[in-house]
Amino acid sequence: xxxxxxxxxxxxxxxxxxxxxxxxxxxxxxxxxxxxxxxxxxxxxxxxxxxxxxxxxxxxxxxxxxxxxxxxxxxxxxxxxxxxxxxxxxxxxxxxxxxxxxxxxxxxxxxxxxxxxxxxxxxxxxxxxxxxxxxxxxxxxxxxxxxxxxxxxxxxxxxxxxxxxxxxxxxxxxxxxxxxxxxxxxxxxxxxxxxxxxxxxxxxxxxxxxxxxxxxxxxxxxxxxxxxxxxxxxxxxxxxxxxxxxxxxxxxxxxxxxxxxxxxxxxxxxxxxxxxxxxxxxxxxxxxxxxxxxxxxxxxxxxxxxxxxxxxxxxxxxxxxxxxxxxxxxxxxxxxxxxxxxxxxxxxxxxxxxxxxxxxxxxxxxxxxxxxxxxxxxxxxxxxxxxxxxxxxxxxxxxxxxxxxxxxxxxxxxxxxxxxxxxxxxxxxxxxxxxxxxxxxxxxxxxxxxxxxxxxxxxxxxxxxxxxxxxxxxxxxxxxxxxxxxxxxxxxxxxxxxxxxxxxxxxxxxxxxxxxxxxxxxxxxxxxxxxxxxxxxxxxxxxxxxxxxxxxxxxxxxxxxxxxxxxxxxxxxxxxxxxxxxxxxxxxxxxxxxxxxxxxxxxxxxxxxxxxxxxxxxxxxxxxxxxxxxxxxxxxxxxxxxxxxxxxxxxxxxxxxxxxxxxxxxxxxxxxxxxxxxxxxxxxxxxxxxxxxxxxxxxxxxxxxxxxxxxxxxxxxxxxxxxxxxxxxxxxxxxxxxxxxxxxxxxxxxxxxxxxxxxxxxxxxxxxxxxxxxxxxxxxxxx
Length: 783
What we know:
22-stranded antiparallel barrel; Maltoporin, Chain A; Phage tail protein beta-alpha-beta fold; mainly beta; 783 residues; five-stranded mixed beta sheet
C-alpha cells in the first residue's frame, strides 16, 4: 500500500533549523515516513537550509544544535532514499551524524571537535555525541549578533589570553594589554555587566577595579559563545549587557573510535616575549566514562610595543591544572565533573591596567582561581529533559604595596546551582527552572600591626566582608506557530540581597523582567529576527579592594534602586550557497545605573559610594557579509555604536566598571585551504579614530578641575596571519605559525583608558600600549 502521508503532510511537525532544534512527538505516520523511500530533490547550498528541506520532503522531525551547521555547505541530494539514507549522504564529510531519537525523528550531533592532531578520518564513538553540556539552545532576541568561537579558531591563532580569543570579533573589545588587567567590553559595556560562565559556573564579582575579573585559559576551551545585549530569561543573573559562555573540552572531544587513551604535548614560543608548554592526557575508563587531565605553563617577559619600547610591568608567570571526568550514569543520564586550578604571578604597577614608566616601582602580585563544576543532564522523553549545574569558585588576588601598607589580599567565594527542565509539545518547547548564587567577598590587611595602624581607618578592623545572595526563577517558551514563524517569549524573577557583614548594613531588591521575539523565514535563505528583552539587576557584592570605609561614613545610597534594562533589536540574515550576510540594529537603555563614581561627595558619603547615577544608553549597527569559494572564504564585518551616560559620552577612566568608548570598527577575515594538510588565513582590523571625547565631568562636579577636558583615541590598523600545517607522513605532528600585529603597529586599544597625560594633574593616567609584532611558533605532537 502506498504511503498516504507525504513529506508535505508531515511538514508541520518537522523541526527545521529555523526553530533551533526543538524535538517533539511524532505521529505513527511520520515514523512510517522516515523508513519509506522518498524522491528527494535538494540543491547545493548551506547545510542548514538543506536540512530544513530534507525534513519537509521526508516528513520527519530533525533536531540540531545551530552552531554545528553554521557556515557548512552541502553539494545537495537527488534520488530515492529513506530519510536515514538521505541524511547519511547529506552529512558526508561534515563531522556530523544523524541518530534516531526513538520517536520516528532524528537528532543530528557533532561527531567530534576538530582534533589538535588529526590522525585519521575514522568516525568517533557514539559516546562523544552526547554529554551533559550538549544543550540545544534557541535564541531569538539578539540572534543576528550572537558570536561563536570554536576550538579550531583558537588553536590556529594560538590564542593566549582574552584579547586573542576575541581578536576577530568586532562587537567585542579587550583592553588592558596585560593579561591580569584585561577587561572585556561588549558594545562598549564592561564585563561587569555580563553574565560570564565557565561550564555554567559564574565568574562573578570584582577583586580589584584595576584588574580584570575574567581569567580564562584558551588551551582548554571547546567553544566560546557570546550573546550580546539583554536576551532571554535563561541568560542568568545580571545579564544586563549579555551573556558570555565558555565551554571546556572533554576527553571524548579528543579520542577517536576505538582509541582507549591518548596524550598531547604542545610547545609554543613567542617572539614578544615568552613561551608556553602544555601536556594533556585523556582516556576512556570504561565504555561510558572518560577522563581528561591538562597542565599548562606560560612564562612571559616584559613585552615590547610597536616602536620597540619595553612595556614595563607586563611580565608574568601562569600555571594551570585541569581535570574533567565525564560520561553516562545510565542510559539517557549524563554527568561531568571538572576542577580547574589557575595561578598567575608577576610584578606590576600599583594599578596594573595603567602603564608603568621606566624606573617605576613594581609591586609583587598573585592571582588565582579554583573552580569545581558538576553538570548533569537527562533525556527522559518530551516532558522531562533536565539540566542541572552545581558549582563552587574561589578567586583570589594579593598585592604587596611594600612602600606603604604592605600586603593586601582579597578573595571571592561563589557557590550555587541552576536547575532547569525542557518540556516539548510537538513543535514547541518550554524551558523553566530556578537558580541560586551566593557570593562571599572579603579583603584584609596582611602586613604587620604597625602598617595596619598607619593605614587602616580603624586599626581595630583590618578585615572586611560582604555577602550577596541571589535567587532566580524563569520560564522561556519557543513556539513554532507556523512553518516560517517562530515566536519566543519568557519572564524571569530575581531576588537580590546584599549584606555588608563588617558594618551591619545592606540592601535588597526584587523584580520581574520579560522578553518577546520572533524569527520569520521569508525563504530558505532569508530570515528576519526582532525582539525586545528586559533585564533586572540589584546591587551585588562590591569591589573587594574597596570594602573598607571610614567611621561615620556610608557606601550605599539610602534609597538605592535596582537597574532595569530594555534592549530592542532587529536583524536580517541571508544564507545562500556562497553568499551570506546579516545586518542588525539595536538600542539598549539602563535606568538607575548603579555606580561608584571617582572621588568623594559630601558626608556621609565615603570615597566608595554606590548610588544611582542616571540613565545609560547605547545604540548601534552591525553588518556582516561573507562569500565562499571551494577553498577560500572571506568575511567583512562592520560595527558602530554610541554610548552615553545621561546624554554625555563615556570613557573608561571615570566610567570604570560601566562602559568605554570606541571608534567604528572594520574587520576582514580570509581563510584559505592551501592543501589538504595546510590551512592559512589572515585578519585585518581597522578601528577609526574617536577624537575630542569630553571627559572629567565627575572631576568638575566635585571641584577637582575647573572645566571639562577632551581626549583622543587615534585610529589604528592591525593585521594577523597564520599557517597551520600537518606534515604528510608525520600524522601525529602539527606545526602552527601565527604572527600577530604583522606590521608592528604601536597602538593603544580603544577598550583601554585613553591618554590623559596632557591634562595637568592627570599625568600617568592612560591605558597600556598593546604588544608589537609577535611571531608565535607552536609544535603539537600526539603520543
